[in-house]
Each structure stands twice: as structure tokens, then as C-alpha cells.
């Protein structure tokens, strides 16, 4: 039997689309098609989809808002599962909030403000989902997910488990979910009550700082590279005279050298070419390896 037969058997409610171009689902706006594409509305459907994929040996790629993702031009030969709008409930708890993985971090920060919870101001301008943010240990302006997460709901193989935050072994843009291939279903955030005016002002201040410093007017994936120990990625790139350098439609941003932007018609291979150029040049000049923060997935064309 084929994947779609198993899908009909295990989750007849699921809508599975074929040959879905992934450029629409990544903020870099590049990437080839997914053979199969689905947006499950709840945990049960997600689990049943994964079961169908397992039984047919179909590779699976789970995505959130695609804001840290470079999908190669050949697309993904398998099933892409996007946790989005329908998997995005946020609820208030006694000492914070619980969010399903598909909730946007901006929506989570907004809810925190609504309940006068402080601690999530940093997350307001990160354009990813809670699941992607937890998986990446996203952070900004001195805050990161690790500081505010109390516990997690994960899918470990076929088993759903609740784990304390410590089990996630958070470090700089790295978590145990990456090593163990856990799927993050949701997260409980432990937050203190604060002054809503101060929380709001801090969020607005950080939003303004982003707007001034980052090329938000172009498609990008945020900082393309991790911060090498002891350096700033953007400064190393700038000092290597790479600002404005392009490969095809991919360009090192003039505004913030840590951002690689799509100036219009970039392909994934343009971004891969530019990434290599940056890595080689910085290596030659400073002997520092620039590791990509952006996750690179899919097949060459
Ligand atoms: C303009 C801009 C600014 C940015 N600023 C910041 C910043 O300040 N700080 C920062 O840290 N990042 C920043 N980013 C990068 C990005 O927003 C974060 O890494 C974000 O956490 C990615 O979330 P996502 O939902 O988009 O994940 P995706 O890009 O969809 O996926 C990223 C990775 O997470 C995995 N994943 C996604 N969801 C799950 C899940 N539920 N369970 C398991 N794995 C999952 C995917 O398989 C993939 O490997 C920025 C990006 C942009 C475009």
C-alpha cells in the first residue's frame, strides 16, 4: 500500500496535498516542492500521519513557520508536516502560559502581555512558532526560550511524554530535541507577573530596534550564521568586506551583514553559494568557521 492508502486508513480526516511548493512556507521564499504536504489540526491526526509515514518508509520533515529553514531547490521527497494555525491554542495557567507548538511566538508574547506576564518580551519579534522556537532555543536581546520554559510536551517516537525543561538540555541554539528527533507538541512557560505598561514598552522598544537594525523589508531567515565563540557573526562578515555581495538573487544585507536576503528571484542554490562564499572568505581572513544557524533540508535539483 502507498502512503495515501495508509492515510485514508489511519486518519481519513486529513487533507494531504501533492507537489506543494515550499517557497511559500519559508521566510527565505525559496525551495522546491514537497511530494506530500499536510497541516494536522490536532495531536491525534499528527500521530496517525506519522504512523502512516513510518509504515510506508516515507521520510518526514516537520516545519513551523519556516523562518529558520533553507529548503533546497529539489524540494523534499516525502511528507512535509506543518504545524500552523490549527495547532496553536494558548491557555493561561496559574504560573504562566501553555502553548501548542503551532502558535506564533508573537502571539504568545501578546498573550503574556494581556495577562501582565513578564519574561517573553524578547520573543515578540521572532517570527517563528513555539515549536520551532523551543527546538532551536530561539533567543534575542538577552532572553531565550530556555529561561522561561517549565516543561514540554513531546512526541518521542510513538510515545507522548511530558518532560521538565532540564531534560531538553538547552544550550546556544541547540536542544536535545535535535539529537533525539523529538517533535515538540507544546510548552508550558513559567512567568512572573509584571507591570503591563513596562512589558509593552519593552516590546515596542525591541520591535523598533529590530526595524532599525534588521532588513525586515526583504525575505530572510534572520541571522544566517551562529555566533562563533568570542565573535559576532555580522561583524566578521562586515570586516571581510562582504556587505552587499551577491550570488544570483541572494545577497549579504547592507543593513545587517549577518542576514542573507532574497533580493527578488533567489534560488536555494544561490543561498548555498553565498553561504559558502561567506564561510570561505571569513575563514581565510580570520580563521573562524561560520556555522549556519539556518537548517538546510531537502534535495538538490
Ligand atoms: C526576520 C527574522 C528575525 C529573526 N530573529 C531571530 C532572533 O532574534 N532569534 C532567534 O533565535 N531566531 C530568529 N530568527 C530565526 C527563526 O525565527 C527562529 O529560529 C524560530 O525559532 C524558528 O521557528 P519556526 O517555527 O519558523 O521553525 P522552522 O523554520 O519551521 O523550523 C526550524 C527547525 O525546527 C524544526 N521544528 C519546527 N517545529 C518543530 C516542532 N514542533 N518540533 C520539532 N522540531 C520542529 C524544523 O524541523 C527545523 O529543523 C529570525 C528569523 C527571521 C526571518
Radius of gyration: 20 Å
Query: Roughly how many Å apart are the termini?
Result: 28 Å
Structural class label: alpha+beta
Please give the domain count: 3
Mean pLDDT: 97
Residue stretches low in confidence (pLDDT < 50, at least 5 long) are none
Which small-molecule species are bound to the chains here? flavin-adenine dinucleotide
The CATH topology of the largest domain turns out to be: Uridine Diphospho-n-acetylenolpyruvylglucosamine Reductase, domain 3
**Biggest β-sheet: count, sense, barrel?**
5 strands, antiparallel
Strand order of the largest sheet: 6-7-13-11-12
- What is the CATH architecture term of the largest domain? 2-Layer Sandwich
Features of the shown structure:
3 domains, single chain, binds flavin-adenine dinucleotide, 301 residues, alpha+beta, Uridine Diphospho-n-acetylenolpyruvylglucosamine Reductase, domain 1, five-stranded antiparallel β-sheet, Uridine Diphospho-n-acetylenolpyruvylglucosamine Reductase, domain 3, 27% strand, Uridine Diphospho-n-acetylenolpyruvylglucosamine Reductase, domain 2, 9 helices
Amino acid at each position: 500500500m502507498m502512503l495515501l492508502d495508509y492515510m485514508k486508513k489511519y486518519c481519513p480526516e486529513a487533507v494531504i496535498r501533492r507537489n506543494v511548493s515550499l517557497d511559500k512556507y519559508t521566510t527565505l521564499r525559496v525551495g522546491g516542492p514537497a511530494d506530500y504536504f499536510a497541516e494536522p489540526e490536532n495531536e491525534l491526526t499528527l500521530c496517525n500521519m506519522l504512523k502512516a509515514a513510518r509504515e510506508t518508509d516515507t521520510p518526514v520533515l516537520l516545519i513551523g513557520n519556516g523562518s529558520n529553514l533553507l529548503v533546497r531547490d529539489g524540494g523534499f521527497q516525502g511528507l512535509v508536516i506543518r504545524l500552523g494555525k490549527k495547532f496553536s491554542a494558548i491557555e493561561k495557567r496559574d504560573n504562566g502560559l501553555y502553548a501548542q507548538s503551532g502558535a506564533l511566538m508573537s502571539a504568545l508574547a501578546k498573550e503574556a502581555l494581556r495577562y501582565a506576564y513578564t519574561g517573553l518580551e524578547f520573543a515578540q519579534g521572532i517570527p517563528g512558532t513555539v515549536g520551532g522556537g523551543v527546538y532551536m532555543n530561539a533567543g534575542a536581546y538577552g532572553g531565550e526560550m530556555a529561561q522561561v520554559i517549565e516543561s514540554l510536551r513531546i512526541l518521542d517516537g510513538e510515545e507522548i511524554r511530558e518532560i521538565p525543561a532540564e531534560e531538553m538540555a538547552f544550550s546556544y541554539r541547540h536542544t536535545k530535541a535535535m539529537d533525539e528527533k523529538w517533535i515538540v507538541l507544546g510548552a508550558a512557560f513559567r512567568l512572573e507577573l509584571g507591570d503591563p505598561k513596562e512589558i509593552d514598552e519593552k516590546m515596542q522598544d525591541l520591535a523598533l530596534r529590530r526595524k532599525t537594525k534588521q532588513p525586515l523589508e526583504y525575505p530572510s531567515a534572520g541571522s544566517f550564521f551562529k555566533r562563533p565563540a568570542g565573535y559576532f557573526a555580522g561583524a566578521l562578515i562586515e570586516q571581510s568586506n562582504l556587505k552587499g555581495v551577491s550570488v544570483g538573487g541572494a545577497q549579504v544585507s547592507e543593513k545587517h551583514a549577518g542576514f542573507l536576503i532574497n533580493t527578488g528571484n533567489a534560488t536555494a542554490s544561490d543561498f548555498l553559494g553565498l553561504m559558502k562564499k561567506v564561510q570561505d572568505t571569513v575563514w581565510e581572513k580570520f580563521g573562524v568557521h561560520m556555522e549556519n544557524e539556518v537548517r538546510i533540508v531537502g534535495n538538490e535539483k
